[in-house]
Amino acid sequence: MAHIHTRKGEFDFTVSGILVHEGRTLLLKHKFLPLWTPPAGHIELDETPEVALYREIKEEAGIDRKDLTLLSTNNDMPQFDRQRSSAVPTPFDIESHPIGDDGHQHIDLGYILESATDSVRPADGESQEFKWFTHDELDLFTNAPISIIKRGQYAIQLINGRKEQ
Ligand SMILES: [Zn+2]
Questions:
Q1: 136 alpha carbon to ligand 1 midpoint, in Å?
Q2: For residue 123, which of 52, 32, 45, 31 has the smallest C-alpha distance?
């Protein structure tokens, strides 16, 4: 989807879905750039982060919500009574980074999801190049920003740790 704000000093909110399946995490090659990222994209003006997250994963990886388990990574979030409001799942990580040449920035909400499938079917028009990476493969991979590598490794370790308990 297109950027929402494009002027210097403006921010778009985005989501990233760090998917893990059997000790591997999914990265997809960017449509145009020599850059690999997890399924990610803008939170459109009519979307909650959760809605944007599942839409982007479906578009870019073809994985349905029914095959995904969103990890709760903040057990300290208070459980208030809410009347006309609803809790939004808390990301495991939030970062901002500059995008492109126009000076706008992204505030990215990172979520970790366990995927029941490794079958990836990107929609038409999306990048068709992807790979599930192990922790060690990420150490050697240079076509992604360091925070993407570290987020993927963190997600693999977190899910491994929960399984060993
Ligand atoms: Zn943007």
A1: 31
A2: 31
